[in-house]
Structures are given as structure tokens and as C-alpha cells.
Write a structure and sequence with these properties.
single chain, alpha+beta, Beta-Lactamase, 4 domains, five-stranded antiparallel beta sheet, 12 helices
Length: about 475
Amino acid sequence: MFNKKKKIYTLHDIEKLFTYIPAIFILFLAFLFLVISYFILESKQARDLDLIQQKQILNYEFDKKDTLYKFVDTVESEVEEDLLSVKEHLSQVVYKTIGHINTKYKKELNQGLMKLYLNKTQNNENIKFVLFEKDTLNILYGNESILNLQKVMFNQPHSSKFKKLTLQYISSQGKSNFENWKYDLQKNLILSFFDTFFINGEEYFIGAFSTINNIKQITKQYTKKSIKEINKDLNYHIWFYDSNTKTVFNFDNNGRRLAIKRILQKNNSDNRKYKILKYYKSRDDENQEFNKYVYFYFKYSYYVSISYDNSDALDANKDEVNNIKEDYSRLFFRIIFLIILITAILIFFSFVFSTFIKNIFGKYNLELSRKTTSLEHWKKRFELAIIASNDGLWDIDLKADKIYFSSQWLNMFGYDKGELSNFSDWFALIHKEDKHQVEEKFDKIFCGLDDSFVGEYRLKTKN
């Protein structure tokens, strides 16, 4: 292995270090701060963008859930309007019939003619009439309708007792009375309107019953009708699932009615609406995950669902996302400007400081140069004085174990140049009686008790 010599730094090298090292260190710190600032801002921007995207998606989902519930409200309103029109029709027919009776039968009710009129009117108006005396509860017309109503109320269609209770209930509701008679199992509904009239002081109740209205079917019809009326170009669509018939309407926003088995054969498990349909195919309980996408008609086993893509929420709010990115970009450029400005100021002051140090080193270097020149001058004069005085000169480097002898010294003792090269060679030449005192003097030098060697001793010459 070669021993590498350590570089000896001169004052000029030290001047360069004081000039460039602070500037390089400042530039390194500036770069480090720039990188750290970049990653901190990137992290904060990513967090803010994530929060704003979550907020946008939540708002978008809330808006679409609200759209779904508004759709359901619209359907229910249309169903209510449909039933209301039936009620108005029933009341108009009853009032018209009472007007006819008051005109034709002022003293006595002709049951034969009355039955003909009621039979003709109910066929034309698609309704069913009921006519009975209030006091005696004697049914003059519409016994079959009362039996059906009796079955709805008491599930006793052939009991005279419950027929009487049915008529008493109707009369207890007074005149101008609307009623909704529901068949809970079949989800059917019959509407009725009853009013009273008098002939010869005797009070009669006359009422009109609608034909059986299947509310379940009406709701389904209006739901499908409302789905068809939705604009196909909107960023969502609504589909309808009837778990009774296992059919789906408008699943792919094409207005088609398909069997659930056919749809699920595609096995698109990553699509949300497929997951919803697959879940409700075998269950009728609510699912918290799907609540914001589905409205469930519990009494009909119908499901109305809204389908949309959450990515549309992000597309709808690109401006807000771009504004956040622009804000962080401007902040990053401001940080770059501040780092550059501070770096320039620090480098300027470092050069001012290095110039100050350089001047100090320059003065010290000049003084050292002068002293070195003076020392060289006196060294030469000392060498001339030694030569002139015919004295021998020697010098010992104890750390390097080297010894130097002048030519005059070597001539005095008869040795050749290079024959004596180290301290041991020289110490061996000392007379044995003088070695002890020489050794003591060097021990004092080694211990720091003395810094010069002055002594008298005898040396062995070569011959």
C-alpha cells in the first residue's frame, strides 16, 4: 500500500475555503428548503383536493338522492290526483242523481223507476250505486256492493248482523262523506261518496262506489310513465324493479322491461346497480349501503333506484379543483422567490465576510512573507558565519528519527555523507562516560523541562 501524503493547506487555500464553502453551503440549504417546501405543499394540496372531492361526491350523492325522492313524490302526487279525480267523479254523479230524485219524486219514491235510472247511470259512469233508508237500514239498491264492503270491514260477507253494522257506520259518517275502502292483501282500493236526501220527511242515503282500483298497479303505471318522461341526456337515469314479477324496467336507460335473470347473467359485479339488483333479488330488507340509491315501496314490494356515475361530480366541479391547484402553484412560486432572495442576501453577506477574512489573511500573509524573507537572509548569513568559523553544524528531527550533519562536521570526524542517518547512529558515537549526561539532557527535552540542548561530550571519530 502506498502511503498518501496529507495535503498541507496554505493561507491561499484557506482563503478559497472561506470564500466558496459558505456560498456552497447556503446554496445547498436553499435547494434543501426548496425540495422540502415542494413535498409539503404537494402533500397539503393532495389532502385539500381529496377533501374537496369527497365533499363534491357527498353533495352530488345528496342531490341525486333528493332527485330520487322528488321523483317518488311526483309519482305519489299523480296517484293522488288520479284518485282525487275519481272522488270528484263520484260526488258529481251522486249530486246529479240526488237532483234527479228531488225533481222526479217529491212526494213518494218510485223504486221501480229509480232502480232503472240507477242501473242505467252506473253502467254509463262505470260505478256502483247503493241506496238505503236511514231509519230502517233497508237496502233499496246495491245489496251486492254492501256485501263486498261488509267483507272488507269484518270479513263476514253473509252475516245480517255485520251488514247492519256496515250500514250504521255509513250513516254515522253523515252526508257528503268520502271513504277509502282498502283490500290490504290485494292492495286494491274502492272509493265511495255518500250523501242524503229527503222525501216526505224520510231520510235516504245514496252513495256511489268506484270500481276496484288496484293502487299497486296504478303506482307501477305512473312510475313507469314518469321514468319514460325523464330526459335521456341527463347524467342519471331511474330504473324500476318489481319483486313480485321479478322484472326490471329501464335498467339500461332504454325503456325496456327485462327479466331479472337475464340481466344478472351479464355478471357485472363491479357495477353498483348490478349489486343493488342482485341484493334485492333475494331480500326485501333495507341495506344502509344502498339507501341513498334506492326507494323501497314496502307495501307493494317495488324498488325505484337512481343510477349515476360519481365521476360526474368531479367533472362538474373542475373549476374549484383548478382554483386550488392554481393557489398552491402561486404559493410555491412565492416560496421560490423568497428562498432565492434570502439565498442571494446570505451569499452577498458571506462574500462580504470572506472578503474581510481575506484581507486579514492577506495582511498576515504579507507579514509572514516578510519574516520568511528575513529568516532566509539571516539563515544564509548564519551558514556563512559557520563556514567562516570552521564549526560543524548538526540538526536532529526526533519525530522522523532523522539527523543532519553539515559537510564541515563530517570532515571534522572523518565520516562520509549518509553514513550517519538517524539518532541511534549519532548516540552510539558518544563516549560511554558522557552518554548518561547526554541522555539526561534529552529526557528533559522530551519531558518539556527544557527546549534546547547545550552540553559538552566526546565523540568517536571514524579512525
